[in-house]
Amino acid sequence: MRFYAARLFHLRSTCMKKYSLSVLFAGAAIGLFAGVSAPAWAQTSAVVAKPVKVGFICPFTGGSQDFGNSARLGAELAVKEINEVGGFLGRPIELVERDDKANPDEGRKAAEDLVLKEKVAFTIGYCNSGVALKSLDVFQDNKHLLIVPVATNSTIATKYPPDKSYIFRMSPNDHLQAGLLVEDILKRGFTKVAVLADKTGYGEGGLKDVLGFLAEKGHKPAYVGRFDLGVTSLVPDVQQAKAAGAEVIIGYTVGPEFAVIAQSRVEAKFAGPLYGSWLLSFRSVLEKAGSAVEGGIMAQSIIQDLSNERRSSFIARLKRSAEKQPVSSLMAAAQSYDAVQLMLRVMFQTKGDLSAGALKAALEKLDHPYAGVVTTHDQPFSASDHESFTRNMIWLGVWRRGEVHFQYPEDAKHASIIRRKEPA
Fold first, then answer.
1. What is the dihedral of CA 320, 419, 307, 67, to 10 degrees?
2. pLDDT tens digit string along 203-246?
3. pTM for the full model?
4. How far is CA 273 from CA 78, 176, 298, in A?
5. For residue 165, which of 158, 177, 408, 415 sits 20 to 30 Å off, Cα-Cα?
6. Residues 279/253, Cβ–Cβ less than 8 Å
7. pLDDT value, residue 359
8. pLDDT recorded at residue 24
9. In three state form, how does the secondary structure of the chain look?
10. Among 136, 100, 96, which Cα is nearest to 119's?
């Protein structure tokens, strides 16, 4: 916590250098120095200060609760750490949470509640792409800033022209992930690819991206299978893929159904590797599929490694904060944590102006880099680009002995090198 407090004070000092000394003393940052107290009027102000209300929407119940609750743990940890050292200039951050239950209608209802009734300063939210897509116009029409920390459908951050859009994303989109998967598959000499995708907006978008990259390289899928969430077996689909000559399977679905794909692959005696989007890395997939997930390869924005102190420290704090609650998705937790911390920096940059226009302008042109736990964001966004990731910033992970490791040893060797966003 001392390390975090020192880091936050440095952030405040840097971002607020244009503030007058009296304003700085009114903030909580002064409390980080032992033996130094704020004036009485500042202390009184801090006691009655209204919280900065931040909306947070993800699934806490239902089939997608594994990554929804992981995202919530990351966001809550960031808020806890910020508030423990004084909040935003004496104002505590209050996370106003809503459970969308992975249901598009519930997600939209939550958006309307937070934006129109709660009137939160901004919102961080959405794990499921289909849920996010149903709600985007609520934020855009009301000029309310939305940071998407998890959902990855390629169209989320591009539905509206970026210069006019209030939608930003802190996760690697499916276009980047699909490109990485297809590139590795073809590099290994596989050309006959089967794709198994669920019928949600997420599965539909991922399938489209995979087929697009295959087509660019002159390949057609050997087999395409679609299924509903809740399916208990996909053995017939895997058998048809095998009969069609498929050498490898790419899955695009959520955690429980990825476990079904892994188990069905073993039951159908499909010898080729299983690739998948980042959701294949969920702890719940391992718990449901057991050894059937061994060797499964997926896209990742963060993989636990001891060479990066910032990430290792975050993971340790996250586990302590979660107590007995399992962290099913490190990516969801880390990206949500970074989304909250980045917005704290943005609030300092706007000098407390929480209007959507001011927040948008600051996000599109950060005064100083944000050193996150996933990566260091120099300029994550611009007026023409609301995606924070480029292809060079993601890795391939693989399930080995119950843990997600780097697929390639050379990536593990270079894990301590921060990968920054490439210019457009």
1. 30
2. 999 999 999 999 999 999 999 999 999 999 999 999 999 999 99
3. 0.88
4. 37, 20, 11
5. 177
6. yes
7. 98
8. 34
9. CHHHHHHHHHHHHHHCCCCCHHHHHHCHHHHHCCCCCCCHHHHHHHHHCCCEEEEEEECCCCCCHHHHHHHHHHHHHHHHHHHHCCCECCECEEEEEEECCCCHHHHHHHHHHHHHHHCCCEEEECCCHHHHHHHHHHHHHCCCCEEECCCCCCCHHHCCCCCCCCEEECCCCHHHHHHHHHHHHHHCCCCCEEEEEECCHHHHHHHHHHHHHHHHCCCCCCEEEEECCCCCCCHHHHHHHHHCCCCEEEEECCHHHHHHHHHHHHHCCCCCCEEECHHHHCHHHHHHHHHHHCCCEEEECCCCCCCCHHHHHHHHHHHHHHCCCCCCCHHHHHHHHHHHHHHHHHHHHCCCCCCHHHHHHHHHCCCCCEECCCCEECCCCECCECECCCHHHCEEEEEECCEEEECCHHHHHCCCCCCCCCCC
10. 96
Query: What are the tokens at 114?
Result: 């937070």
Beta pairing partners, 34: none
- Relative to beta strand 122-125, strand 146-148 is parallel
